[in-house]
């Protein structure tokens, strides 16, 4: 017995104009699409419920192809620094928060959105006797107070390969840590099995409210013992039905391979993850020449070319593809160069993550490689306040190149990199199709609404080989879909951001529904 959905605008996403008015769902599967009358006659007594969509739009449920699921769940329950516009208000909220493993933590500040930038002196005044940590929104930069700095064993003279200790003009440590300098903090903040399970549940509950029922995630080196993290994933994904595709950080790849974990159908394993550079906001993304607002630095090279080559060779020895965080133009060039030397196994794709600043000649080289690119259209909105200053107008032409990346023939998948950015898919659709934010105009690099939706529906499942049962609304596919008030194809500008999600359905069951009073 099943449900017949009628009087809707149901977009299968198989191709741009494939639209139906009715859909029959039985248990966890889509059985048929078509016209209401024909489906009524065909299935008759098997229909035990009619769901009138009243003209609403239906799409395949979303998959976020780049997220840190446990980290997102943790951030939900911590001080969200991005909510504050004054340092005083942020400090008051910070003081009220419960410490994590004895460390006071706030997540996601952006100095361009505060009335003044946070400093070590400010953080020391808030917490003179207890360790405190304030993470920048990109999580590649963090501010620590003196107590935590000393606990980490750092000095102003400490040299860190792939990262750095920030220094003030007088040569003293200024409290800022960059990229690899943050790694010791992972152990200090690490969760246990129960805390990680709670974080996963919080994350999944929130994602359902955005229509997201699956994710590609990378968490295995940040939150404690690998076996415990995997166990948390096993229990929570089986409990919720939320599918996760896990990347494996290179720091734990040996341990992961040795464990040879058995995974449920709600989990799959992807590429070995590594970082080539940092982020543009903290000036740690690796550029070919100095930053326009600080020519003394080109960013941080997390791995030398030789180290990068060795890491890719290690992945290949285990039969893994490689996923690399690359934001700056030089970082992407370095990764592409290694992939040209050590290409992915036949029939497999390596993964380029972010690809924010890409030179034209690098696009031509990507065209020849078997890769997928996981892009974050929403970064255009997040970076708008500082990106012109960081890159200058000339390099801005190389940035946020969605259309150019798509034209390489690489498979594009979309994500928000939560908790770094808000996972609300509407923001990504807006950025991808509108192409403007603040002083930044990238309308020459926009996608059609169809192609933007593919980033979060069909394409992530092509990447994980779950295509054929997920990512489209076709007979035989899983009944995973979202119902929106309006059709995104007919919306422009802020109307895209305001299109209300009415219902999220996962395997035939409603996992999120807007409040009845608003429906």
From TrEMBL:
Start and end residues of each Amidohydrolase domain: 50-512
GO molecular function: hydrolase activity, acting on carbon-nitrogen (but not peptide) bonds
Chain coiled-coil ranges: none
Pfam short name (any one): Amidohydro_3
Keywords: Hydrolase
This protein's name: Amidohydrolase
Listed InterPro entries: Amidohydro_3, Metal-dep_hydrolase_composite, Metal_Hydrolase, YtcJ-like
EC category: hydrolase
Enzyme nomenclature, EC number: 3.5.-.-
